[in-house]
């Protein structure tokens, strides 16, 4: 949740530089460095026609993050109510006392043994 909050509130900028239709450089959080072949700026071109004929182009993608976060208790309580109910119920069920069934032979004594059966059959637990 913290990473999701960080990603949604941070502004992202991706700068791309194309030279002759091919991607030359990419930069995060800034403008991409040019390839040095931009002839329009070095020749002092001022008209719109000359800048369109340039072999290089820049593309800047900006994703603005949120500046103000408002926390509303009404929205946060009403939305996850079924989820919280399910969690609370499953947590409380863990601590319920288990009902023990009565044993039908609890009050009867075990049979009397006259001989040691393990020794007679030579069966020993190791």
From TrEMBL:
Q: What is the native source organism of this protein?
A: Ulvibacterium marinum
Reading the lineage from the top rank, the first entry is: Bacteria
Q: Which Pfam families match?
A: DUF8199 (PF26622)
Q: Know the name of this protein? A: Uncharacterized protein
